[in-house]
Amino acid sequence: DFTMTLYLRHYWKDERLSFPSTTNKSMTFDGRLVKKIWVPDVFFVHSKRSFIHDTTTDNIMLRVFPDGHVLYSMRITVTAMCNMDFSRFPLDSQTCSLELESYAYTDEDLMLYWKNGNESLKTDEKISLSQFLIQKFHTTSRLAFYSSTGWYNRLYINFTLRRHIFFFLLQTYFPATLMVMLSWVSFWIDRRAVPARVSLGITTVLTMSTIITGVNASMPRVSYIKAVDIYLWVSFVFVFLSVLEYAAVNYLTTVQERKERKLRERFPCTCGIPHSKTMMLDGNYSESDANSLAGYTRNQMVPEEEKQEKMVVHLAMSNESNSSRKRGLKGHVGLRIIQNTHAIDKYSRLIFPGTYIFFNLIYWSVFS
């Protein structure tokens, strides 16, 4: 519904009220005379509440001209119904109308029309609404039929309202977008950091649920899908998929490690050569460097946080001459790659942002 305060002015001619006068151009009366003469019985169709202001007295004016023309004005506040469509909410525009009609007189007895067409509506230029922008006013008129009483003239005050979007951008769209982007951070976190990635995923899911609940609490309760519902639920799906993505990564990592463990148990990496030693290489060491590092274990050479980015090279060497060590380095090297990211994480870093950007392009091009 909407509430409007207006000055409703009626113009008609009643020759019974004419009077001869050479000095007075008109005579003005208050509401007490209104009850003694005929006035149009106009009412507001589909109004919920309406009243005439009475502070400090009834805000009613009656002005009579010598030729019998009458100006009848009153200050009214009316709350009326407006059939709104929220399918594009909050990127919507609403067209509402205030309808005036005679209650008793049919079109054979009383004709209602706008005195100056669209010029009959004059609004204050300073009027502004916190949530809507008033785009235009215009007038129309038509006949309304009632099966039991007949045809009546009905006048319409039509106005178009466009909703301001900036409030919803700050309170709804930006937080939802930031939550989706925050869920992508887990793609760059070590897949073995289970507490970090799980807590981040659960936090973003719960935050999106809170945003959806808070937004729906202040929205019109309609049974169809609104534009903001599409954006919020698609964002929620992206956040939820990021949690499922890590579930898949964790499961595949566990399966891969189990297979590698069985493979190592079946084929020991020392290949039966005694005095084998293990060291960590990053792929940039020469054979002489490898020989000088042959006495160190993997844990002694590389800090724990750097292990994930390097290559574990199991070298099988015997305590012989350098030439024999070189032959051992060339002939008995087993490689096993340990990475901190899974292939799914690498693809997700591109697929998730790209898909979400594509969705935003389609969404804003359709609804804006």
Helix-strand sequence: EEHEEEEEEEHHHEHHEHEH
CATH topology of the largest domain: Acetylcholine Binding Protein, Chain: A
Assembly annotation: single chain
Distance, first to last CA: 24 Å
CATH homologous superfamily classification of the largest domain: Neurotransmitter-gated ion-channel ligand-binding domain
Name the overall outline.
rod-shaped
Helix/strand class: alpha+beta
Number of strands: 12
Q: Return Rg in Å.
A: 40 Å
Overall structural domain count? 2
Low-confidence stretches: 272-302, 304-338
GO molecular function, one term: chloride channel activity
Membrane topology: Multi-pass membrane protein
Transmembrane segments: 165-186, 198-218, 230-252, 350-367
Domain Neurotransmitter-gated ion-channel ligand-binding: 1-164
How would you describe this protein?
- The protein is an alpha+beta fold.
- It folds into two domains: 162 residues, Acetylcholine Binding Protein, Chain: A (Distorted Sandwich), CATH 2.70.170; 116 residues, Methane Monooxygenase Hydroxylase, Chain G, domain 1 (Up-down Bundle).
- Helix content is 36%, strand content 26%.
- It has eight helices and twelve strands.
- Strands 1, 2, 4, 5 and 6 form a five-stranded antiparallel sheet that branches.
- A hairpin with a 4-residue loop joins strand 5 and strand 6.
- Helix 2 runs parallel beside helix 4.
- About 18% of the residues have low confidence.
- It catalyses: chloride(in) = chloride(out).
- Keywords: Cell membrane, Chloride, Chloride channel, Disulfide bond, Glycoprotein, Ion channel, Ion transport, Membrane, Postsynaptic cell membrane, Signal, Synapse, Transmembrane, Transmembrane helix, Transport.
- Belongs to the ligand-gated ion channel (TC 1.A.9) family.
